[in-house]
Design a protein that fits this description.
The protein is an alpha+beta fold and 454 residues long. Helix content is 49%, strand content 19%. It contains 14 helices and 13 strands. It has helices at 2-15, 38-55, 68-98, 154-167, 221-225, 273-279, 284-318, 325-345, 350-355, 357-360, 364-384, 391-405, 409-419, 421-439; strands at residues 20-24, 29-36, 108-109, 123-130, 144-148, 170-173, 184-193, 196-207, 211-213, 216-218, 233-239, 253-267, 443-447. The strands form four sheets. Strands 6, 7, 8, 11 and 12 form a five-stranded antiparallel beta sheet that branches. Strands 1-2-4-3 form a four-stranded antiparallel beta sheet. A two-stranded parallel ribbon has the order 5-13. Helix 2 crosses helix 3. The radius of gyration is 32 Å and the shape is elongated.
């Protein structure tokens, strides 16, 4: 009989429908108002006290025989608090499910004080909640991506051999001369705009060749630093590209100051029998074959990522949506934190990172908007095309990561689950699979490679 009564009570709870209204309250935000009728409050309180009566043991009374009035006097506050939590949770869940609210954050209640049950009458409460934005996907078949035709040639293998000689080479101190192209230099680097220090990194080590310093392209770096000695400071003026991470210096002329601290030259390793044996090859042909195989795999991977980037950009350009404000702000904070962690991993002292925290925020808002927008788009595509990541795919990626880190896959998986990064990996893999699903539908146009692609 007791089991039947519990089942009937549960059935009654499932069938009860709360008066709920949902209205728009800003970008991807809903205001929800819920009424808990007096009858529902009284019914739940009565049920709670009845359950308490069967369990309560007070001095002078047998279990189940404690007078209702005494129970209400002794446990009224605790029971009402418990019923409040139950009804709020129950009504909130019903609002989310019945109105198909795809919640992306915690509710923000209108009341500044704790919600309490009234002595008489119904309880009405409101809250705002951010939800997934509503938007339409573009016609995926109308997207065209360009795939560079890249052929591995003998000169590419020779360059790979040269790179290998550099990797296995020896750094020797430079004496009696200044900087030459190809030297490895350590310097304190400061980027200034109108005399103000905007970016800096101490003990930055780099090769003197055309390339980037602090994400700024410097094509004539060898000429600018030619002949500089240890202890000397060289300043050059460079035009910053319009997409630099630091918004303040985008498309501006900045002064980059190099204080030279150390100069070393690279003595290339010789590809001889000892070198080949050390790497596990019997002859140079085996080395060349291995380099070609590695390069073909890398080109294939790079091409796939190149196509994925084009698809992602086409989706971003083709979809209009309003993002939830609080979530956007939180994502902006995560972008800044990620940049700080990246700098820590590169050996930048924590004090310097803190001192440059405002610079780290540069462009973070745009990056956060892009990431959130792409997340919602790819989530919708994954849902519509039934894209998911299997346990086997997840474990395979964890195993590859564990091999790189020299740890056991199960240990890494436990660590990632504890840190919350396991869910991040799942989402990233699902996004890649969603993009690859789109690549099956788009038009792929083969083109001659640009210089940077080659």
């Amino acid at each position: 009989m007791a089991d039947t009564a519990v089942a009937e009570a549960q059935q009654e709870e499932v069938e009860f429908v709360y008066p709920i209204t949902v209205e728009s309250a800003g970008p991807a935000t809903k205001k929800v108002t819920i009424e808990i009728p007096e009858s529902r409050i009284r019914e739940t309180l009565d049920r709670q006290f009845k359950e308490l009566r069967t369990q309560a043991a007070l001095p002078g009374f047998r279990p189940g025989k404690v007078p209702q009035k005494l129970l209400e006097k002794r446990f009224n506050k605790a029971v009402r608090e418990d019923v409040t939590r139950t009804l709020l949770q129950e009504s909130y869940q019903q609002a989310v499910e019945k109105h198909n609210l795809k919640v992306v954050g915690e509710p923000s209640f209108d009341e500044q004080t704790q919600i309490e049950l009234p002595e008489t009458g119904s309880l009405t409460y409101s809250f705002s909640i951010e939800v997934q934005p509503e938007f339409s996907l573009p016609d995926l078949s109308s997207i065209t991506v360009k795939k560079p035709k890249i052929e591995i040639k003998d000169e590419h293998i020779e360059q790979a051999r040269q790179n290998l000689r550099e990797q296995q080479g020896t750094l020797l101190p430079v004496e009696g001369r200044g900087i030459q192209e190809g030297d490895i230099v350590s310097a304190d680097v400061h980027v200034k705009l109108d005399g103000e220090d905007v970016l800096h990194q101490h003990d930055l080590q780099f090769k003197v060749k055309p390339g980037t310093i602090l994400a700024i392209q410097i094509d004539d770096l060898p000429a600018q630093l030619s002949g500089a000695q240890v202890g000397e400071t060289r300043t050059l003026t460079v035009k910053v590209n319009p997409k630099h991470p630091t918004e303040k210096i985008r498309d501006k002329d900045v002064q980059i100051e190099f204080k030279i601290k150390d100069i070393r030259q690279l003595e290339l390793a010789e590809i001889d029998s000892d070198f080949l044996q050390q790497l596990g090859f019997e002859n140079e042909q085996q080395l060349n074959d291995a380099l070609r195989e590695e390069m073909e795999a890398r080109v294939k991977n790079d091409l796939q990522n190149h196509l994925r980037d084009q698809v992602a950009q086409a989706l971003l350009d083709g979809v209009q949506m309003e993002l939830p404000e609080k979530l956007s702000k939180q994502q902006e904070g995560r972008v800044v934190q990620r940049r700080a962690v990246d700098l820590l991993r590169r050996g930048v002292p924590e004090g310097e990172i803190i001192a440059n925290i405002e610079n780290l925020k540069g462009g973070a808002k745009d990056e956060a908007v892009r990431e959130l927008k792409l997340f919602f788009i790819l989530s919708k595509i994954a849902e519509e095309y039934d894209v998911d990541v299997t346990e086997g795919e997840l474990n395979a990626n964890i195993a590859a990561m564990a091999a790189q880190q020299g740890t056991r896959p199960e240990k890494l998986k436990q660590q990632m689950a504890k840190e919350g990064s396991l869910q991040t990996l799942y989402i990233r893999l699902r996004e890649l699979k969603a993009i690859d699903k789109i690549l099956e539908k788009v038009k792929v146009e083969e083109v001659e490679p640009e210089k940077k692609d080659a």
